[in-house]
Specification:
This protein is an all-alpha fold and 70 residues long. It is built from 3 helices and no strands.
């Protein structure tokens, strides 16, 4: 995971680091995608959401494509 300050910073970083590109998320999106995993993680009977639950949630918030398939 690489944290960058802007889309331009991302573009500059990609020029210097020619790797397969994943996804670029804002801080708000990063927090939003973590909700189903971490919202109740401190509860004693916590169970991690299933693959199907996570992919359905990510789809519901607009994250589509091969990158989001687990």
């Amino acid at each position: 995971m690489v944290f960058l300050s802007s889309r331009r910073h991302l573009d500059d970083w990609l020029k210097e680091n020619p790797v397969v590109r994943g996804e670029a998320l804002s801080l708000e999106q990063t927090l939003k995608i973590s909700v189903p995993i971490y919202k109740e993680k401190m509860k004693i009977d916590y169970a991690r959401p299933s693959k199907e639950q996570l992919t359905a949630y990510w789809d519901s918030i607009g994250l589509h494509g091969d990158f989001w398939k687990l």
